[in-house]
Amino acid sequence: MPEKALKNVREKDIIARYAASLINDDDFVYIDSGTTTLRMIDYIAASNATFVTNGIVHAKKLIEKNMKALITGGRIRPVTEAIVGPECTDSISKYHFTKAFMGTNGIALKAGFTTPDVDEAMIKSEAVKHTYMTYILSDHSKFGLVSAVSFAELEKCCIITDRVPEDYRSFSGRTVIKELEQV
After folding, report:
1. Helix (H, G, I), strand (E, B), or coil: what is residue 145?
2. Does the pLDDT at position 105 exceed 80?
3. Which residues contact 90 (CB under 8 A, 6 or more apart)?
């Protein structure tokens, strides 16, 4: 996590700020573990929304901001500081989120959204299934990359990014891509 947090900092900041602006007081929100989703919490204004996360650091940051926060149960994956496993998947399956904010390691036309870890992919996939509107927060560097495990098709989510590569522009008719201007 610390290494990833230092990559594309400006882009992640722009994406995080915009994503946070999408949260309404009546939302029931899932926040995936990851560096951009963690940054997003900094920009969440005082809110009556309820937040569920599988990120240990994310939960801590939410409660420090006096937000209503729940954390999933399960095994802790030290590399990402995420909670994973069947208990986590079972926990998420009981909820019906209005919005989810997810990270990804890769975005590819055929493979969809991908991550290198099977356990994390199961959690992400379950969250997407139980969410009205899923947002993938990703800077431009993730486009064209494919990690080991797919967790959702591109059509299932809205991508919030700083820049869309040319070869993905024609695909945007089948999925929602919000390209943010870099300030």
Report:
1. coil
2. yes
3. none
Q: Which letter does DSSP use for residue 78 in this model?
A: T
Q: What is the pTM of this model?
A: 0.93
Q: What's the CA gap between 15 and 161, in Å, rounded?
A: 6
Strands 176-179 and 50-53 turn out to be unpaired
Arithmetic mean of pLDDT, 125-152: 97
**What type of residue is 52?**
V
| Interval 42-71: pLDDT, tens | 999 989 999 999 999 999 999 999 999 999
Half-sphere exposure of residue 64: CA atoms within 13 angstroms, side-chain side: 8
What is the C-alpha to C-alpha distance for residues 143 and 29, in angstroms, rounded to an integer? Answer: 25
Between CA 44 and CA 65 the distance in angstroms is: 9
Distance CA 33, CA 30 (A): 10
